[in-house]
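Typical record was shown:
=====
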Amino acid sequence: MITMNNTTVFITGASAGIGEATARVFAEAGARLLLAARRLDRLKTLAAELKTPVHCLALDVRNRAEVEQTIASVPPEFSRIDILVNNAGLSRNLDKLHEGDPAAWDEMIDTNVKGLLYVTRAVLPGMVQRGKGHVINIGSIAGHQAYPGGNVYCASKHAVVGLTRGMRMDVIDTPIRVTAIEPGMVETEFSVVRFHGDTERAGKVYEGVKPLTGRDVADAILWAASRPEHVQIAEMVILPKDQAGSTIVHRRTDD
């Protein structure tokens, strides 16, 4: 059994999906949790279920000033962050670029790229100063392979791959580890958010497929974080058995 006693883990986008599942697995391992999301009510409900110290933050990672102020005001017992899980992210629409919505582009880039940068910039200096830490960025198979209609979302996840690799170079002379966890199809709120609450359309994404769960990805995050200090899991792509690439999916049909 993996134990994370006396470890403080900061998870963004922790109110649902992979973020919520990650909070649960680290709580089971005994870690202290700093959980951030825009939906504070859902965080508090989650925190009440976890048998570990938890501090909840209402945080929109797109707002740089809010990120800086919120993280600077974290209570002392949660301020020494050992593991940062940059999980907050989203996708909008499946439009061709020449038919796309610039407001949706901004939302994806501001959350998936700039939000990751803002949070990491606020947390990483403390890790470097203390000589201890691990940054885990949640990317996607879309960061390696684009797909039709995914233009800006895929670009944002390619950026996560590039930023993770560059960050690893930046801290190579420190004990800090940097990891990218890159899932394929995971059944969470992802498609519901992409299609603006259209649950019927979102459900079709997973028809005939057994996708990953948030827990599957969370288990991989915990495993990567628990390796010996000299072991750095650089990148991990996780796919359901029914998927071989961004657009290569085997869908079962009823006999």
